[in-house]
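haha ok so turns out i had the wrong file open the whole time. this is the CORRECT one, sorry everyone. sequence first:
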Amino acid sequence: MDDKTKQRIENDIKNNKIFLYMKGTPAAPQCGFSAQAVAMLKEHGAKFGSFDVLSDESIRQGIKEYADWPTIPQLYVDGEFIGGCDIMAEMHQNGELKTLLTS
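then structure:
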């Protein structure tokens, strides 16, 4: 990943308490996993930033390398990588996601 891509990712994550890299936008997700991730965040009333990885191939590939996580969506809270849709769903079910998002 080039420095410009890494800097952009770091800026997104640092400048937003909650940030979601996803396919599509919160208003129009372009995959089921991104739709699920947005729905979970909205259910908890989370205000979050997002980026449509389909609009920029360097970010789409760079975020996978940055987090060492092969899939999208990817959730970051307070600058920390939380996980993808499956981890979010598990945390949602056991109450950890609500705690994380409201702390």
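The helical segments are 3-14, 32-43, 57-67, 85-94, 96-102.
again sry for the mixup
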